[in-house]
Specification:
The chain is α/β, with parallel strands linked by helices. The chain has 22 helices and 18 strands. The chain folds into 4 domains: 5-83, Dna Ligase, domain 1; 87-238, Ferritin (Up-down Bundle), CATH 1.20.1260; 247-539, Rossmann fold (3-Layer(aba) Sandwich); 550-580.
């Protein structure tokens, strides 16, 4: 049998026998697959879809003779999930629901009642245990692959460390023995994994602290995590997003999340490409990087047929900076759970001299910190040349322009003050973007988008670095609804402008005749310049007030008297009934 191998999400096969070996381990009677096959003639790869393992066997056996390589990509589950069975996680609209949500809430309650009450600490300790379980899952998967495909297998757990596998220590029978093993064996083991450079997560484990205080608490948490059915990367990512949504203290510690649907919209606006080099200089939990990689998987699946692009995706595409090592660990784990094993994640102050990046990236996606103030000595000198300010939101805009390559794009969130601020620093950065680069769009968002964390009004700027201007007119959009209520509860509602924003942005030629009274319209750059580079939509939006005519006063008073007479008559009837 010729050699074959499985990697996350893709299965490369070089023979009929290898194909049969994979299909035998697919237990699900109904799975959704995509098949790519490359002909020996070098013709462009074709793609077909089918449902069901038997149908898959017949179709693939028929075409395998013509193919040098066959690639199977399962739409709903990763290759790891194929080998482990069909335990699906129920999610709804990308959110954890039902029984799984209740199980996660019970684990969270166990942390809380056990004395770990800081939400970030809970997520971090939860992260460690998920990572430990994932290591064992990956190890088990690789063992299965090696057995099925007859290829060599090198374990990440040496013989003396096999006892540190999740499947081993969870069955020790004694809570005290398990606690001893995890605290003094498993935890030091994963902290030292960075010596082999296995993952970005492992690189930030050096100062990690195991905080679970008792054996009983650990035993209960391990049992709870072991019952979670997390068969595919999407469900693990959804679990992580759900955990992050619980960070209720985010508004005070600066770690509040960008809502997932807003991130998806921003990524859809800039359309990441297979050759892009993508960065979030204030990455937090890596939400923008996660959504960018998912967009590429959904819209550019063919890139994985190209060895060079595949290597670029896995090793050189995604970059993130943060100054909080806890968030670095959380962000790296989030990337790992979404199938990106080797992102370039750095402990770095993006605004300081420590960050020497210049024209390195082709795409910036970010929601940088608002309302921060830095000392000049802590800020990179070349950023201050663009705009001399202590405000972080302005300095980050200067940074984006510096680190982007010529032709690079950016979609970033800024507070409304950036759009209309009257200080020299505000005007300078707006002038730099408008006159020396190309500002494509200003999308004004309602103030409730970041609730319950913050009520600040924000906007999305979409621009392209040119270094030589190019802004002829700027597209404005007044978002009124994002699909959720704008109060602290943020409940899902039917009104949502996001699909309209994406559609209109990618069809701007149809927007040229739109009036200023409508929800979106163009404004010539000359008009913006004459208004001190003001980018607030209210400066240019025209509001038409409709005349409201009311009935004459005597008619209204007559109706009130009529209602009063009716009320008195009904009160009299009620009194008669009570007397009886």
């Amino acid at each position: 049998m010729k050699s074959g191998r499985i990697t996350a999400g893709l299965c490369y096969l070089a023979s009929k026998n290898a194909l049969c070996a994979i299909l035998r381990v697919v237990q699900a009677p109904k799975c959704n697959f995509e098949v790519f096959y490359v002909h020996q003639t070098g013709r462009r790869s074709r793609r077909m879809g089918f449902i069901g393992v038997k149908h898959a066997c017949k179709k693939l056996m028929k075409c395998v003779e013509d193919c040098a390589t066959i690639i199977i990509q399962e739409k709903l589950f990763s290759a790891t999930h194929w080998c482990m069975g069909n335990n699906t996680t129920k999610t709804e609209n990308g959110m954890i629901t039902g029984d799984l949500r209740n199980k996660i809430d019970r684990i969270w309650e166990t942390f809380w009642t056990g004395g770990i009450t800081n939400p970030l600490d809970v997520i971090e300790q939860f992260t460690y245990l998920l990572f430990i379980k994932q290591l064992d899952d990956v190890e088990t998967t690789k063992e299965n692959e090696a057995n099925f495909l007859g290829v060599p297998f090198e374990s990440m757990f040496p013989d003396e460390c096999q006892k540190y596998r999740w499947s081993k220590f969870k069955n020790l029978g004694s809570a005290e023995k398990m606690y001893e093993t995890v605290a003094n064996g498993v935890f030091p083991f994963i902290k030292n994994l960075h010596q082999d450079g296995d993952s970005a997560y492992a690189r930030y484990m050096g100062d990690a602290i195991f905080k679970i205080p008792t054996a009983a608490m650990l035993s209960k948490i391990v049992d709870g995590i072991d019952r979670l059915e997390l068969g595919d990367e999407d469900s693990k990512g959804d679990l992580y997003e759900y955990l992050l949504s619980k960070v209720a203290t985010a508004g005070t510690n600066g770690q509040f999340r960008t809502p997932r649907h807003i991130i998806k919209m921003m990524v859809a606006l800039v359309k990441p490409q297979p050759e892009d080099i993508i960065i979030d200089p204030a990455m937090g939990s890596a939400g923008f990087l996660i959504e960018a990689q998912q967009y590429l998987r959904d819209h550019h699946a063919d890139m994985f047929l190209n060895a060079q692009l595949r290597d670029h995706f896995n090793n050189n595409m995604f970059y993130g900076n943060d100054m909080d090592r806890t968030m670095l660990r959380i962000g790296a784990m989030n990337m790992l759970l979404h199938g990106v094993d080797n992102p370039s994640i750095s402990y770095r102050d993006s605004l300081s001299e420590q960050n020497a990046d210049i024209e390195k990236y082709s795409l910036v996606l970010a929601n940088p910190p608002f309302k921060g103030s830095l000392d000049y000595v802590a800020v990179s000198a070349n950023l201050l040349k663009v705009t001399k300010t202590k405000k972080t939101e302005l300095l980050f805009l200067a940074l984006f322009l510096r680190i982007l390559k010529k032709g690079g794009r950016a979609a970033v969130i800024v507070p409304d003050g950036v759009l209309f601020g009257s200080s020299n620093a505000h005007k300078e950065i707006r002038k730099e973007i408008l006159e020396h680069n190309k500002l494509n769009a200003v999308i004004s968002m309602p103030s409730g988008v970041f609730k319950p964390y913050a009520g600040v009004s924000t906007a999305i700027l979409v621009f392209t670095k040119t270094g030589s201007g190019g802004t002829d007119q700027v597209w404005f959009y007044d978002m009124k609804a994002d699909g959720y209520s704008l109060d602290d509860k943020r409940q899902e509602i039917s009104d949502c402008d996001i699909p309209d924003i994406i559609n209109r942005f990618h069809n701007l030629e149809a927007e040229t005749e739109r009036a200023r009274t409508e929800q979106s319209f163009f404004v010539p750059v000359e008009e913006i310049v004459s208004n001190d580079y003001d980018l607030s939509i209210n400066k240019y939006k025209e509001v038409v007030y409709e005349k409201v005519e009311y009935e004459p006063t005597d008619v209204i008073l007559g109706r009130i008297e009529q209602l009063e007479t009716q009320i008195q008559a009904e009160m009299a009837e009620l009194k008669k009934l009570l007397v009886k």
